[in-house]
Amino acid sequence: MLATGIQTTSLFKEYEDLLDAMGLKLVEINRLDRGMTVSVNIVILAKDTEVNVDHCAKVYRLVYPRMELQLAERDLQLEVSTPGLQRNLKDVYEFTLFVGKRVRVYDTTKEAWLSGIIQNSNDSSVTLSEVFIDDDKEMIETMVVEFASIQKAKLDYRWEDNSHGN
User: Fold this and answer.
1) Which residues sit opposite 118 in a β-bridge?
2) Helices H, strands E: what count in the chain?
3) Mean pLDDT of all residues in the chain?
4) With a cut of 50, which residues of the chain have pLDDT below it?
5) Which of 55, 81, 107 lies at the terminal end of a domain, its last residue?
6) What is the radius of gyration, based on Cα positions, of the chain?
7) Residue 66 CA, distance from chain mean position
8) Any alpha helices (H) in the chain, and if so which ranges?
């Protein structure tokens, strides 16, 4: 089951605008407190290009001193990364970030894996195009999948998609 509301968390709100000003989208931010150590994991996405090491380094250099000041005597472990080719989507919000990318979802109403390109999404569903059901050779042009029926979702990379210039 997909979560909702990641963008309403205080940590997300604190850093979303900061990254937005850098031309980046905040995909996910998590904090784990263990004794005197605080581990923070940030996943970013570039708006108009593929995210690269330079993007991650800039975010690290901007965020680390800010977080370190807030933590005072505690040790900070900060990791900034890209979503990766086969990221597990955890929140409905992520479907808006990956428009134009191929996603693989398990649809409980069809009891099958669907692979399609995200065209758009709203609060209740996602519209996919070029949909393959359970690796069928047959392609369905467009399909709307309700978020309530998605058990699992992840980015799906297919070589065939690259041959079309995507």
Assistant:
1) 128
2) 4, 8
3) 91
4) 163, 165-166
5) 81
6) 18
7) 24
8) 10-20, 53-71, 94-97, 159-162
